Amino acid sequence: MILPYVLKLLCLSLASFFLVHTAFALATLIFSPTAIRLSERMRPRVAARFLFALRLLPLALSVFVVLGLCVPSYLWFEPEEMTEQVGLVGMAAALLGATICIIAILRVLHGIAGSVRYGRQFQRAGREIQVPGDPSPILVLEDQTPFMVLAGVVRPRVVVSSGVMQALSAEQLEVALRHERAHRIFRDNFRRLLLLLPPDVLPLWRGFAGLERSWAKFTEWAADDRATEGDSGRALALAAAIVRLARMGAAPRLSPLATALVRADDNLAARVDRLLLSEPPREQALGGASWGGATLVIAGSLATVMLGSGSVFSSVHALLEHLIR
Amino acid sequence: MMRFLHNHPAEPDQTVRQCALGTLETELMEILWVQGESNVRDVVQRLDRPLAYTTVMTTLDRLFKKGLLARYKSERAFVYSPRLSRPGWERKRAEGLVAGFLAGPHPSRELLISCLLDAVGQHDQVLLDELERKVRLKRKELSGRGQP
């Protein structure tokens, strides 16, 4: 199939994205059991960050390779007047690349739409209550369902059912609200949104369920640590609140962008046991330079090295020529 | 024309929502799910109990009219095959049941949801008892140390 210059660039970008992403994603998948084992030895917040970064790594690397290498090499070395045939393999890879990207975009849009819809419903049906120690009011829904979530991405709100308000003691409710506020401080709902973004390894095969489950577990533990701050009384109250809510039944499944105090797939035993330790865990400040800064420095250095040597781009262009034929 | 209309099979979805299967109908469906395409004689031979050829023929004809079987004529006899796989039938039946509940009045909706919640709740009952026991122990330990 003969394609014009810009369409050929698009086709090549999608094809190379699919191939590079599949390779990185498979490598990450192979490494993920080890990463999960490693994360068990880390503090929950560090473990959550580590697994989150690992989950986004294939996407980040693929975007970097495509936008930083493939596109510039094509623009640099491909003569504009040249018409070239795109082979079957290249077209198939481009189609698969487009498919996984479209699925990912639809997933994100669906997540956002669900979050907005629930947010509006909560706003309409809920009654605002100001709680001490929290500048933003919580929303109380007149419902007996065991329901306590942090809903929303941009301005997350704590939403509680009146059933939960009645079932928990004042101390349990306070620490449970502290837990939800911790999720808000850690921007966990925004991270949930980002986790919807990485494309599937192959169309309709997501492949990272274990990693995402572990990430969710550590985010809960990190929020528990922040809520209890090493105080045995608070830890006991939170453990009691979790058991109480779990006993009230399963919470309704909501948007993937909402964080519930008790989730259906929670490992309750591990979580409660952890809170009942003789020395309850406390949140510790993350030491050293921030991960975001470190990533930027590494990416910047790589970009500088690559830009300094034209041979990298010519090699990439040669590879793309193989792909296109 | 009337006969044609009468003989026209229903859509499987419609059948699932509208009717349950009798014992013999279920037996015949089971045979066809296992054996695949069969004529009346094959089905009679596979039955665990002796039944008249005409009884089986009438029941298969009824299943065809309900839309659960497809058939074609081969050497003057009908050959029947299921229109839905067994998991497909079970899924449709469950969907029909839930849809029926959800379309009903508010209390029946709540009933369905509370049944589902109870099932989930009971699943973890032993674990929750154990966790509650641990919480009580910890509370005792803390109050012994003079903490709330």
Short summary:
The complex is a heterodimer of chains A (325) and B (148). With 325 residues, chain A is α+β, with helices and mostly antiparallel strands. Helices cover 66% and strands 7% of the residues of chain A.
The quaternary state of the protein chains shown equals heterodimer
Q: What is the rounded Rg of chain A?
A: 24 Å
What's the number of extended β-strand segments of chain B?
3
From N to C, what is the helix and strand string of chain A?
EHHEHEEEEHHHHHEHHH
pLDDT averaged residue by residue of chain B: 74
Q: Low-confidence segments of chain B, ≥5 residues, pLDDT <50?
A: 1-7
> How big a fraction of the residues of chain B is strand?
5-15%
Distance between the termini of chain B: 83 Å
Largest sheet report of chain A? 5 strands, mixed
Unreliable parts of chain A:
none
Outline the structure in words.
The complex is a heterodimer of chains A (325) and B (148). With 325 residues, chain A is α+β, with helices and mostly antiparallel strands. Chain A has helices at residues 5-39, 44-77, 88-125, 162-167, 170-185, 188-196, 209-228, 232-247, 268-275, 291-308, 310-324, and strands at 2-3, 84-85, 127-129, 138-141, 148-151, 157-161, 258-260. In chain A, the strands form two sheets. Chain A has a five-stranded mixed sheet, sandwiched between helices. In chain A, strands 1-2 form a two-stranded antiparallel sheet. The relative contact order of chain A is 0.15. The model of chain A has no long low-confidence stretch (mean pLDDT 84). Chain B is 69% helix and 9% strand. In chain B, α2 (12-18) crosses α6. In chain B, strands 1-3-2 form a three-stranded antiparallel sheet. Chain B has helices at residues 2-7, 12-18, 23-35, 40-46, 53-65, 86-103, 106-123, 125-144; strands spanning 38-39, 69-74, 77-82. Chains A and B meet through α8 and α9 of A and α7 and α8 of B.
